[in-house]
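ZP: hey, is the LCXROUX7 complex queued? I don't see it on the tracker
AM: it wasn't, my bad. submitting now with these inputs:
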Amino acid sequence: MGVAVIKLKNPPVNSLSLEVLTEFVISLEKLENDKTFRGVIVTSDCPGIFSAGLDLTEMCGKSQAHYAEYWRAVQELWLRLYLSNLVLIAAINGVSPAGGCLMSLTCDYRVLADNPKYNMGLNETLLGIVAPSWFKDTLVNTVGHRTAERALQLGLLFPPAEALRVGMVDQVVPEDQVHSTALSVMAQWLAVPDHARQLTKNLMRKPTADRLVKQRDADIQYFLRFISRDSIQKSLRVYLDKLRQKKG
Ligand SMILES: CCCCC/C=C\C/C=C\CC/C=C/CC(=O)SCCNC(=O)CCNC(=O)[C@H](O)C(C)(C)COP(=O)(O)OP(=O)(O)OC[C@H]1O[C@@H](n2cnc3c(N)ncnc32)[C@H](O)[C@@H]1OP(=O)(O)O
């Protein structure tokens, strides 16, 4: 039925490095241009981890030029995914904090494996950083304003039952059924004529995407100012050190 599977593979935690973001956009563009494909299942090849989100090492201790290049790549992937003409279904087979959660929120439908460890949410505040307005918009468009307001301020990571209750995911299924469920949901979405579904998707999502498109450069400048602050760099270093020391 013309369905591709994009399996993220950037061990150990599928962090969204500049390289991963760039390759993801290229793969998506190829699929968009190949009319034999109508849908994509986005999933992970790293056991227990859908994606650890944006690569913190790309946002810490680097040059301004690097931050700008990285942020443009983050924007690009979000725009491509959010406005994709393809049906995108996230088969979430692991934990998905921050950028990992955002990636799934850009999809049309989310199936999450029923494992209490597989938390998801926008936890930026717990790192001492702030989810940008378009991350916030994506969450609000999925779970509504009040749930998003509380989740964003507290940096909540929802276990599967809670994620389902607040509408962050559409279905929670046993781990070994995530892929087959994604495939059967895909069949349902592909039963709708493409042009009508695509126009409707655009109607729902373009106003949100346009807010970023209209001020992409300003958004990058804003990010640069924010991420370069000494206090923010310090918060990121402390967080990364904590992650690294967990093992030791
Ligand atoms: C009004 C003002 C508004 C201003 C707004 C303007 C701009 C906005 C500015 C900034 C916004 C930036 C947005 C960021 C969104 C993000 O996505 S930030 C990333 C958030 N991610 C996380 O918090 C997840 C952190 N990771 C974990 O919790 C765990 O690693 C895990 C995913 C649960 C896996 O656990 P596990 O035990 O299996 O693995 P380890 O923890 O041992 O990790 C292994 C290895 O990987 C490294 N690592 C983990 N996560 C990341 C990451 N996200 N990036 C880079 N590296 C990561 C970890 O350090 C270990 O490394 P090693 O010790 O060297 O092996």
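AM: back. The longest strand covers residues 3-8.
ZP: great, adding it to the tracker
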